[in-house]
Amino acid sequence: MAEGLSYTIVEYFGGDDGYRCGYCKNEKGNFSHGMWSHTMTVQDYQDLIDRGWRRSGKYVYKPTMKKTCCPQYTIRCHALNFQPAKSHKKTLKKMSKFLSKGELPAGGPDGESGLQPTRASSTPAPIELCFVNRNPFSDSSSATGKGADPARPPCRKAKDLRKERRLQKEQIKRAVGGDSGASPATPTTPTPTEAPPGHAPQPKPLEAFIHESLPDTALHRLEVRLVAVSFDDPTFAATFEQSAALYARYQTAVHGDAASECDESEFRRFLCDSPLEAESPPDGPEMGYGSFHQQYWLGDRMVAVGVVDILPTCVSSVYLYYHPEFASLSLGSYSALREIAFTRQLQKQSPKLAYYYLGFYIHSCPKMRYKGKYLPADLLCPETFFWVPIERCTARLENARYVRFNQDPDAVDARAFKDLSRVMVLYKRTVMPYAAYCRKRRGPSDQEQVEQYAALLGQTCAESILMYRDIRGP
């Protein structure tokens, strides 16, 4: 293999006989094709998820859509045009109230336990994205407060609160306008402005809800830290045990896993072992591309972690886990809103990075339909791999589990597999096209398996990704 070049190297496993579905609980109804990725470039993974693939650790899989019991459609949100719905504003207000008063709302997380529940080099420095009030977090024990502090001062007069809100709006406008003193994490999406006479007011943007200033009496400080998934990163290494313990607590309490199913080795395999190679091109975002953990901290206590992949055109949500004590804050929805805002922030640095991928949309599972509320959104047509607005898809999904969303009968997969001879393989540590490999190979033919693999990847990916072939033959 040539030195200094980045390759994606995979071992293709083919389909399987069916396994238990995590959505409808059918014992043998879930079907998919899978491959193990030893290493993967971010562009190759971007191309794969745009053909319906997803990763779980280093295992990359694609549901067999016409066969599986609960078809899983790739979904993406147009982050730049996103406007929070009423339910999203409610979630943001719940968090603001908790930070201000320390009150956890009654009830559960409204069915949202995370965005992607399926499990199946040099590193950039950590970036910190802070949601901070003006009072420092007093002590770690107050992070679990269940009610208002009786020692807190009496409520201020309404006119004082109005004055404070006016000053806060002015501060946000100055920051958005390019004030040289603004923090790098300050949102840059425009804030609402006064509408001209006769025009409707502009809607309040997502960032204004997230970064709304808290009162002086606020009890808590929430900080979100972006950490590269690498043990070479000192922040990731220092917080690994705490993060693994939080994962185990979440899995046992929320998903009912046995302790052996969510120990440190399983946590490492599922959420720390990533095939993605970190890349920092000059036209990319400041922290580069790759796999990251977004850690949510209350003082010195980690309360949630969102796992994301930053790719050339999107932020892709992988998983979320959190302390069950905070389930009533709807952290699945809250973290998605934070990740949409994060995508919008990155787009300012890398213009083509404009989408937020929420994993799979499973219409046949009512609890997973909430992903369709992050609008505007598209679903990926499973046959042509065109993106189709979700509102044109959901009505058809009411009548059938599997649907070809592209209604143009002449539309085809533009990257369909056409030429087997040009599929790239890695054989005896040498990169070669399949035609050359066939002349060197010993043993029975593997053409049927390679054709299946190439059809699932499409011609572009099949010519870029290296399919590992054992030196002993198939």
From TrEMBL:
GO terms for cellular component: cytoplasm. Residues 157-173 have a biased composition (Basic and acidic residues). Involved in the post-translational conjugation of arginine to the N-terminal aspartate or glutamate of a protein. This arginylation is required for degradation of the protein via the ubiquitin pathway. Residues 243-381 form the N-end rule aminoacyl transferase C-terminal domain. One of its GO terms (molecular function) is arginyl-tRNA--protein transferase activity. Residues 20-90 form the N-end aminoacyl transferase N-terminal domain. It holds the Pfam family ATE_N. Residues 100-122, 138-205 are annotated as: Disordered. Belongs to the R-transferase family. It catalyses: an N-terminal L-alpha-aminoacyl-[protein] + L-arginyl-tRNA(Arg) = an N-terminal L-arginyl-L-aminoacyl-[protein] + tRNA(Arg) + H(+). The keyword Transferase applies. Keywords: Acyltransferase, Transferase, Ubl conjugation pathway. Its EC number is 2.3.2.8. It comes from Gadus morhua (Atlantic cod). It comes from the Eukaryota. It is an enzyme of class 2 (transferase). This is Arginyl-tRNA--protein transferase 1. Residues 187-204 have a biased composition (Pro residues).
